[in-house]
Amino acid sequence: MHEHTADEQSVDEQSVDEQRRMSTDDDRAHAPAVEGPDPVPGTVHPWRRYVALGDSFTEGIGDPLPQAPGGHRGWADRVADALAETAPHFAYANLAVRGRLLARILDEQVEPALALQPDLITLSAGGNDVIRPGADPDALAARLAPALARLTDSGATVVLFTGVDVAFSPVFRSIRGRVAIYNEHLRVLAARTGARIADQWGLTAVHDARLWSADRLHLNELGHREIARMVLGVLGVATTIPPAEPGPRVPVPWRSARVDDLVWARDYFAPWVVRRLRGTSSGDHVRPKRPRF
Fold first, then answer.
1. Is residue 144 within 8 Å of residue 163, measured between CB atoms?
2. Cα separations (Å) of 110 from 46, 61, 292?
3. pTM score, two decimals?
4. CB atoms within 10 A of CB 165
5. DSSP type of residue 269
6. Farthest-apart Cα atoms in the chain, separation
7. How far apart are CA 277 and CA 164, in angstroms?
8. CB within 8 A of 135, min separation 6: which ones?
9. Band of pLDDT at residue 246, cut at 50, 70 and 90
10. Which residues are CB-contacts of 35 (< 8 A; sequence separation ≥ 6)?
């Protein structure tokens, strides 16, 4: 057996150390960003061209504002406003359309987004798929993977959203496991591509039903504000957006709660089922509210 000399052992140890260092550097390059110290208000950030991709969540449904493009504001508009505060000539486009499934988001929004040459992209896609009976989170992730790689390969910072932990919701509690599986895929894809994760699953503030609109599917103004705060935190940008404070809980009598359930079923759930049966979508005739800079 060959015995290593002291010099050979030193070279071997240096080689191992170098391999470990290179591996660590590579892991850091592809890992999602980790929150650091609290950002300082007024700090200049590097982004100048932001494009938001997605469905009703990113369009801002649930947060109506008549004077806003499309009649809704939402978290993405709030993020853009905050980024524009310290970035002269900041540009913002929002290609999201309500009701869009993952495939249509990727087919219709990715290339137009890249044509705008953004340096910041947010992508929330798959939520409308996951809530459908029989949805396959593995297949959704496989469909998303090449599109996400294309976005990150452009050099833009990409922020990817996990789904909300729906344990608090009587309407969606049954699909909690499906959401969790899809989220795990998203985390793997983010680590692989260098995308950053906006973790709605861990955002406990939105587990409060008072941050959701009457349709129980979309966040209200308070909820959208919380998402904006989270995204800015992921980017390391300070914000003056106040946290949601829905106030003290008011007990709801059992009979009143059941009446609310019936009204919700009539006004929101039944129309949703009819659209599924007809193969239509709430966004069939809707155009992106901010298709260009």
1. no
2. 22, 21, 13
3. 0.84
4. 20
5. I
6. 84
7. 26
8. 129, 175, 178
9. confident
10. 233, 234, 236
